[in-house]
Each structure stands twice: as C-alpha cells, then as structure tokens.
Design brief:
- Among the domains are: 3-108, no CATH class; 134-231 and 537-552, no CATH class.
- The protein is mostly helical and 553 residues long.
- It contains 22 helices and five strands.
- Mean pLDDT is 75; it is low at 28-42, 147-168 and 305-314.
- It has a three-stranded antiparallel beta sheet. The chain has a two-stranded antiparallel ribbon with strand order 4-5.
- Helix 4 (86-108) crosses helix 5.
C-alpha cells in the first residue's frame, strides 16, 4: 500500500498509508513526520482567527463550505487537491477542508459556533426573502388572475393583498425560513449524497422548529426594545385655560368672518333651558338669581348689543354672548342655596349641550364668508365641550375641599371628593357625550381602586377624623401608648395616602377630559432601537433554524 506525504489541517506534514489520496485524507490514524501528535488547540492568535473565519465561511455557505472549496480547488488548484482526475482532486480537497473544519470546531468551541451562526445570518435573510416572495406571489396570484379578467383595476388592488398576505403569515414565514436553512444545512453536513433526501427532510423539520423559536425570541427582543422609548404613553393634556383660549380663538375667527347664531338657534337654547327648569320645579321664589339669567337670555334673543351691518343676521348672538350667558349661569350655580345652585348647574349643562351639538340651521354667515366658517365653529364647540367638562370636575374638587373644611379640618375629604364627583358624573351621563375612557376614569374616581380603598378603611381609625376616633385614640394612648402610638401613626399615614390616591383619581378624570377623552394615546412612534429590533423576528429565524440543526442533528 502506498504511503502519502500530505499537508494536514494544522499545516504540518503527515505520512498516511492508504490506497489513494482520497482515502488518505479521510484516514483517522495520521502520524506527523516529526513524530509528535497533531495540535489540539490553536498555537497562535493568527491560527485561531483563521479557524473562526473557516467556521464563518461554513455558516455562510449553509454547510456547503467544504464542498464549495473542494470544487474550486479541484478546478484552479490549491492545498489538499491531490489526484489525476477532477473528481479525485475534488474529493481529496473536500476531505481536506472537512478535516480542517472539524479541527477548527475542536479548537474554537463556542466562539466557533457563534462565528458559524453569524455567517448564516446573511443567507438566512436571503432565505426569508425567498419565502416572503413566495408568499407574496401566492397572495398576488388571485389578483393577477382577476386582472386578466377585469383589467387594470384588479392589478391596482394587488398591492394591499400582498401586504396582508405577508404580514398575516409572519410566523409561518419564519418557520419556512428555518426549514429552508435547516434543509440546506442538513444536506451540506451529509457525507454521502445518497443520504441527501433524508438529511434535507430531517434538517427541514428541525429547522422549522428552530425558525419558530427564533421568531419568538425576536418578538421578545422587539417588545423589550420598547422600554428604550421615553416618549410619553399617556395622552398629553393642556390646561383648562389653554383649551378655553383655543376655543375662543376659533370662535373669534367665526365671529370676525360674520358668523352668528340664528334666531332659531337661540330659541332652541332658550326652550331647552326653560324645559329643564320646569322639570326641576323652578319658581322665582325658589331661585331668585335664575331671573337674572332669564333676562339676559331675553336680551340675547332680541339681539341686544349685536352690531348692525350683517343684513338680516343682526338680530342674533355671537359665541361670546353665549359665553356671557354661561357666566351668568355660573353666578347662579355658585349660590350658597343648594336648590338655586342646582338650577344654575342645570342651565350650564344646557348651554354646553347646545354648543356641543350645534346644527347647521342654528348658525349662519353672510354672503362671501369663508367656506370653512362652519368648521371653525365646530372646532371651537369641541374644545369648549372639553373645557366645560374638565372645568366641572375641577369645580367639584374645589367644592369637596370647601365642604370638608366646613365640617372639620380635612377629616371627611375622601368622602366629600367622591360624592361631589358622583354628582358631576350623574349629571354628565344624563347629558351624554362621555367617552369610554372618561367613564372608566369616573368609575375609578368614585368607587376607588383596591389600594386607595384599603388605605381609606385603615384611615378611618385616624384621630384626625375627629369625634369618636379622637376619643378612642386618646384612651388608647393612656392605656397602652407603646401599642397605640404605632397604630395611630399607621392610621394617620393610611388616611393621608387614601386622600392623595383619591385626589389622584379625580385629577385623572380631569386629565382624560382635557386630553380629548383619551386615557392613553396611540402607541408612540418607534425610535431607532425599536425600528432595528422590529427586524429581529425575521433575522433570527434562519440562524435559529441552522442552530437547531447543529444542536439536534
């Protein structure tokens, strides 16, 4: 049997007894010419780097690096290409590369695995693009068939169909990508092409599972990337004064363009107010200040104070006059007489309801007025509705504070705040127009959450509530100060916490209203990190499929 002197994967010279060069490179018993065993680890950083590059190349070729190198060396010459025929040179060079790859695997360990997976990213992306293109072709085919029958309009509708098809099949696409890379890896790792079909099948199945896991890992990282986005996720809300000023700006534009409320609109408002007062049983003796409002309403209906020059529109009112009527109603609502105050609140509700639901026949504009004059009025009315609701909530907070102060120094502040908010909520429910987020915020403010209700219950034992609680705390201090002091301090702290949490809930109602009825906005636009992370589910599916094949097969 002939003896071959060959260059080994580590660069050393070896003698191998074998019938041919192909068998020599495949032999397991290799003895170096210098009589020492081959290296088991990289002898220098240069060799370690070369081993990493070899692993990267194998990953980039999806397991076919040794076959590709063997083919190139058999054609153009190179280390390990021994033999007379192209086939002999290919086989010997391929086995040389395969032995070098195995040696690099032993030397580099996990670093080599990482390098090989890094190499598989680019072809994994390519596989994903192929899968995506195939999915797009499948979803586009019906549209193209329709185009043949109906012409160009069907082709124009193909693009949305493609987008739906690709986005809806993200996970299947990832599994298909993993299956494709896994199948190629499986074939690339087999030494006998007769086993290629079975290797491709096994690699495809394992790779598809790996692709699914890679997709899941990518989605997890994508979600985690959201913490890097510092854009507020809570809807931003202007102050009530800012909303009022913005509404007034639109009203001024409406008025300056010649817009006015019609006589019919004022009659509707006056009728709504009188009906509401009648339902409440109003009599002049029960609410003297209501008469002042009625006189102001009569003057508005007669057009008093409206400048002439608008033709037949001069006997009407401007938005500012409607706001003046609301101010008069506010004086009635501020009465110390509860009955009269209720009349004033009802009048304010009717004015706000009128402004929030103005119909085209309730306002008019002279000839030549801008076409968007109606839009200015609608925008102003929408902002005024926000202002009026938020203002009512803030007024309720003030009334609760005054009510608690009149009974005791803050002892019943929690109850007072919730009760005043309940009155506002019930009044607004009758009027309608609350969004789901506004209703939810009201419910939380009135009923309270678990934390504030627990704190409220414990806080009922606080001495600052006065009455019996003060006496019990004093008695406990006398009987057992060591136990009573911490208990009393805990109760006081719980009361303070409960009051603050309740106030926070009420302020949240106002914020939601000032934000236009939205508790949370649409998700903020993604930042650069989120945009990069959004690609991870697709990027990781291919390498994960390759990793699964490497680990399981």
């Amino acid at each position: 049997m002939p003896t071959f002197q060959l260059t080994g994967p580590d660069g050393g010279l070896y003698e191998v007894d074998a019938p041919d060069a192909h068998t020599a490179y495949s032999a397991l018993h290799i003895t170096p010419l210098n009589g020492q065993q081959g290296n088991t680890g990289s002898s220098s950083p240069t060799e370690f780097t070369a081993d990493l590059l070899r692993k990267f190349k194998q990953g980039a070729a999806l397991g076919f690096g040794d076959e590709l190198s063997g083919a190139l060396k058999a054609t153009f010459g190179g280390r390990g290409a021994e033999g007379q025929s192209w086939t002999d040179r290919y086989q010997s060079a391929r086995d040389y590369e395969r032995a070098a790859y195995n040696r690099a695997t032993d030397r580099t360990g996990l670093y080599g695995t990482a390098a090989e997976l890094a190499g598989s990213i680019a072809p994994g992306i390519g596989a994903g693009e192929l899968v995506g293109a195939a999915g797009a072709a499948r979803s586009t085919l019906p549209a193209l068939q329709g185009a043949v029958r109906t012409g160009l309009p069907a082709i124009e509708g193909a693009a949305p169909s493609v987008a739906r098809g690709v986005s809806a099949g993200a996970l299947p696409n990832a599994m298909a990508t993993g299956a494709l890379t896994g199948a190629v890896h499986g074939v690339g790792d087999t030494e006998d092409m007769m086993d290629a079909p079975v290797a491709a099948l096994g690699g495809g199945v394992v790779g598809s599972l790996g692709g699914a896991l890679g997709y899941g890992a990518g989605k997890g990282l994508e979600r985690f990337a959201r913490v890097t986005n510092t854009t507020p996720r809570v809807a931003q809300a202007p102050t009530t004064d800012e909303i009022k000023a913005a509404a007034q700006n639109y009203y001024d534009r409406f008025t300056n363009a010649g817009g006015v409320f019609t006589q019919e609109g004022l009659n509707d408002l006056s009728g709504a107010v009188r009906n509401r007062l009648g339902e409440m049983g109003w009599q002049p003796e029960l609410g003297p200040k209501v008469g002042a409002f009625n006189r102001a309403m009569d003057r508005a209906q007669r057009g008093s104070g409206i400048p002439s020059g608008a033709g037949n529109l001069n006997q009407v009112a401007t938005p500012r006059q409607i706001q003046n009527l609301r101010r008069v109603a506010g004086k009635v609502a501020g009465s110390t007489d509860p009955t009269e105050s209720a009349y004033g609140s009802a009048i304010i509700d009717e004015i706000d309801n009128f402004l929030s639901n103005v119909t085209p026949d309730q306002y008019a504009a002279p000839p030549g007025a801008p076409a968007d004059i109606g839009e200015d009025l609608m925008r102003g009315n929408k902002l005024w509705s926000q202002y009026s609701k938020a203002s009512a909530v803030e007024d309720a907070l003030g009334q609760a504070e005054r009510r608690a102060a009149s009974t005791y120094s803050g002892g019943n502040e929690n109850n007072a705040m919730r009760q005043e908010m309940r009155k506002v909520y019930e009044r607004m429910l009758k009027r309608g127009g609350l969004t789901d987020d506004e209703k939810a915020a009201f419910e939380t403010a009135i009923r309270g959450g678990r934390s504030e209700n627990i704190a409220r219950g414990v806080g009922k034992l606080a001495a600052s509530r006065g009455g019996v609680m003060s006496l019990l705390n004093l008695g406990g201090m006398y009987a057992n100060p060591g136990m009573m002091v911490p208990l009393s301090m805990t109760a006081e702290g719980a009361k303070y916490l409960g009051d603050r949490l309740t106030r926070r809930n009420l302020e949240e109602v106002s914020r939601v209203m000032r934000a236009g009825g939205r508790r949370r906005p649409v998700a903020p636009p993604p930042n650069a990190i989120e945009r990069g992370a959004s690609r991870l589910p697709a990027l990781l599916s291919g390498p994960a499929g390759a990793l699964a094949v490497r680990g399981l097969l």
